[in-house]
Specification:
Layout: E1 7-12, H1 18-34, E2 40-44, H2 52-57, E3 198-202, H3 209-222, E4 229-231, H4 239-252, E5 264-270, H5 276-293, E6 297-301, H6 312-321, E7 326-331, H7 338-346, E8 350-351, H8 359-372
């Protein structure tokens, strides 16, 4: 028996800024280009159409069919052939998920404390194709990089400040490979698992209420027999996000090579959250970027909360206390919107664009999708995250 691959349902927050929907749509096109044949759909938590619930209920239900019943050739089946429409079973080969670009992601699933990527993750360009072998290092782990105790000066913004060498004791160099690292010809992650249904991948950069509650609840409500739903982890922190952040800074005029060093610093502007785990994730993202750039990186938040209190002006003061005379703002946002505009307006110098439809972000969506395919589907009672 064989099953269709589950759909990849990208879950975006939604925005009143019309540029956001256009950007997310372009990002999904990048995902489809990386994995031809994969059913990629979009659902929003709020503000934009289609709403997530509508996207999930539109997913077909499917059961197994005998392999070889239909072939995927253009003349393989007529309009009345089994599996050609509706919610009936799908023939083997009719839907194929494609494969990752050679060597694009060789890291295994997230594993706490497993160590991670060195400072020279390959490539720093703009929106061109992602180079083969982009990730050869171990998986992004909870605690992959943590800010060192000396990362900030005496007036820095407390634990949010990250220096260029702020790596945890398990951090490894660029040749480190995680225990689950696999080459481009590795078996599909769900080779022995039934497919169909969908995998919800949050287009969100850290843990928080939407990731912990809203998205799993939507998946549980839409689960039906023959339509299993799984929920992936949020995108960050991850070296592929570091890659995209570096590219956006370079596009904005950040000096390359040895041009950035003493006297330079970066503010990583994020949204803010009431969930303390979001602050942890953003600090780790800042540490990854600091390691990549070789300069201090301090997180700041467009909507400060008790757990994410540092404003952008406070982060700039923290960098100045460390001797930074040339600062830039990196936009830790997936698409244009109010927070991204607010951060750019507060930047005294360079202000990078949001991550947008960068190929590294598209590759990361597929990576989270592949990870979640090996997990148990959510139950009808409550959703369950693949990894947090």
């Amino acid at each position: 028996m064989t099953y269709p691959d589950p759909a990849l349902v990208v879950v975006a927050h939604g925005s009143r800024d019309p540029r956001a929907l256009a950007t997310v749509t372009a990002l999904l096109d990048e995902v489809r280009a990386l994995r031809p044949g994969l059913d990629v759909r979009l659902g929003h938590i709020e503000l934009n159409d289609p709403p997530l619930a509508e996207t999930l209920h539109a997913l077909p239900t499917a059961g197994p069919v005998a392999a070889g019943l239909l072939t995927a050739g253009s003349d393989a089946a007529g309009p009345d052939a089994a599996g050609s429409g509706g919610d009936g079973p799908v023939a083997a080969g009719l839907f194929t998920a494609g494969s990752d670009a050679a060597g694009l992601l060789t890291a295994g699933p997230d594993a706490a404390g497993s160590g991670g990527a060195g400072s020279d993750v390959a490539g720093s360009g703009g929106d061109g194709p992602v180079a083969a072998g982009l990730l050869t290092a171990g998986p992004d782990a909870a605690g992959l990089f943590t800010a060192g105790p000396d990362a900030a000066g005496p007036d820095a913004a407390g634990p949010d400040a990250a220096g260029p060498d702020a790596a945890g004791p398990d951090a490894a160099g660029p040749d480190a490979a995680g225990p689950d690292a696999a080459g481009p010809d590795a078996a599909r992650p769900d080779a022995e698992e039934p497919g169909g249904g969908g995998v919800l991948v949050p287009l969100l950069l850290s843990r928080g209420h939407h990731v912990r509650h809203d998205i799993p609840a939507a998946a549980a409500a839409a689960t039906r027999p023959g339509r299993p739903l799984r929920v992936a982890a949020p995108l960050g922190p991850h070296p592929l996000l570091t890659e995209a952040l570096h590219a956006r800074l370079t596009e904005a005029g950040w000096p390359g090579g040895a041009g950035a060093g003493a006297g330079h610093g970066v503010v990583l502007a994020a949204a803010g959250s009431r969930d303390p785990a979001a602050a942890v994730d953003t600090r780790r993202a800042a540490a990854l970027l600091a390691r990549r750039l070789g300069v201090p990186v301090v997180p700041a938040y467009a909507a400060p909360t008790e757990h994410t209190p540092t404003t952008l002006p406070a982060a700039l003061r923290a960098l100045a206390a460390q001797g930074a005379r040339h600062t830039a703002v990196a936009a830790y946002f997936t698409a244009p919107g109010r927070f991204a505009t607010q951060a750019a307006d507060a930047a005294p110098g360079l202000a990078a664009a949001p991550l947008g439809a960068h190929p590294a972000l598209a590759a990361l969506l597929l990576h989270r999708y592949d990870q979640a395919r090996t997990t148990a589907p959510v139950s009808g009672a409550r959703g369950r995250l693949a990894s947090v």
